[in-house]
Amino acid sequence: MALVVIGLVILWKILVWLIIRPFRVWLENRRMWARERNVADEETMARYKVDDSKLFKDSVPENVEQRIRDALLEKKLTDQQQRHHQLMGDKGKK
């Protein structure tokens, strides 16, 4: 009886492997085809290429540096004000 069960289990594994293996190959081919389909061909990519020379035409590097300095200074001042208000608030509660 045990040999029949073992034989059936082995037969089941072989049948499953024979059925699932082609399905896995087919599924992998479908995934590869879908990936290739999602990427545009070179002609389409060239047609829709961004003209990046126009993107930052109005921006001047010195202006950016000054804006960064101003933003950092503003952040420093607001942080100092918040600390001051927290200290004053803590003293008022005591």
Name some characteristics of this structure.
94 residues; 3 helices; 2 domains; single chain; elongated; mainly alpha
Q: How is this structure best described in words?
A:
The chain has helices at 2-38, 42-47, 61-93. The chain contains three helices and no strands. The model has no long low-confidence stretch (mean pLDDT 84). With 94 residues, the protein is mainly alpha-helical. The radius of gyration is 34 Å and the shape is elongated. The protein has two domains: 1-49; 60-94.
Derived structural class: mainly alpha
Helix content: over 70%
How much of the polypeptide forms β-strand, as a percent range? under 5%
Inertia-based shape: elongated
Identify low-pLDDT runs.
Answer: none
Q: Averaged pLDDT, please?
A: 84
Oligomeric organization of the protein chains: single chain
Query: Whole-number radius of gyration?
Result: 34 Å
Largest sheet: none
Number of helices: 3
Tally of separate domains: 2
Run of helices and strands = HHH
Report the end-to-end length measured between terminal Cα atoms: 86 Å
Give the secondary structure arrangement, pairings included.
Layout (H helix, E strand, L loop, with lengths): L1 H37 L3 H6 L13 H33 L1
Write a brief structural summary.
This protein is mainly α and 94 residues long. It has helices at 2-38, 42-47, 61-93.
